[in-house]
Design brief:
This protein is of the alpha/beta class. Helices cover 37% and strands 15% of the residues. It folds into 2 domains: 236 residues, Aspartate Aminotransferase, domain 2 (3-Layer(aba) Sandwich); 132 residues, Aspartate Aminotransferase, domain 1, CATH 3.90.1150.10. Strand 10 and strand 11 form a beta hairpin. It is globular. 49% of the residues are buried. Bound molecules: pyridoxal-5'-phosphate. Pyridoxal-5'-phosphate binds next to helix 3 and helix 4.
Length: 385
Amino acid sequence: MNSIPPLDLTQQYETISDEVNAAVLAVLASGQYINGPIVADFEQQFAQYIGTTECVTCNSGTDALFLAMRAYGIGPGDEVITTPFTFFATAEMVTAVGATPVFVDIDPDTFNLNLDLIEAAITPRTKAIAPVHLFGQPVDMTRLMAIARKHSLLVIEDCAQATGATWQGQRVGSIGHIGCFSFFPTKNLGACGDGGAITTNDSVIAAKIRMLREHGSRQRYYHEAIGTTSRLDALQAAILRIKLQRLDQWNAQRRAVAAYYSQLLTPLPNLVTPTVIPGGEHTWHQYTIRLTATDGQTTRDGKVRDRVKSFLQAQGISSMIYYPVPLHQQAVYQSLNYQPGQLPVVEQVAHEVLSLPMFPELTPEQQERIVYALKDSRDQGMFSP
Ligand SMILES: *Cc1c(COP(=O)(O)O)cnc(C)c1O
């Protein structure tokens, strides 16, 4: 039996290879590899797609977060409220600019920040909230922006997993003060290498980010700040320009895959399918289930989930654990002194989550095989009596 990978980038490439190959060769022949008209054009198209006046590309989603925080002057003494259930870069860049991440527990159904807990975490040092639209599900931005406005806080959206997702009809990355995107190959809009972007309606901040990404210079060889070098290659921009045209179609395919999973998996006791909150359009970067209990016992140590994962793997089905260790429990953040049980929901959920294979080209037959294997593991009593 063929194995089923967590995702497969080659199938997507095959569908657009003629166009991509021609675009890549044209860039190679042009001699313009950094900045230039193709990058400018992609920035304009991406801003238009997201619904902002500005887009500035950079080398990665990580750099997008870094440059956004630098541009807003976030630094030593400042606190940024964020989620402990995200890829490390979100908090890492808060620390990288000299500020302190303040982790707030999550909602177990959406995996996103629990907005009820944000106000209690705000201190006089709080500068910003950095919500993450995890797995492609938008945060309730109406509520989050109301909290931010009330306390005069910046909102830096981490949209790395949610390119194209909307909240109340507005694309994420256009609702907060600034949106940070990743074009890492596995993301919904992925380049053939590293890439990232920020989107904003603030032209002063956009200009500042352009300055920072070019060694702190607006005019070449005249430097006004310590910046960095962080640009999107013209090759990647040429590829992304082609892929952006198909993003909505690919996201629609992901939604169909997710809907079929949820149909096949409902109702299986102790297996929780992902919740979609009304008001948002999810882009299904991941389809993540929770295995919650067996025989009335909780899965505190993650062993139930790990057994199911191994069982699937033995049948050639790759599933993934996003994320096994909440960020407040990472070794590097020991100095922040979070106590075990302080963020109980995320500590529990990290032991329960399992992300099933998810990519636009996943077939119904493959999904049926995956679900059959999950039901088989249930029949063997792995997560249900
Ligand atoms: C991928 C990702 C990033 C980092 O993006 P890179 O392009 O890999 O640097 C940041 N935040 C989240 C939530 C991500 O998933």
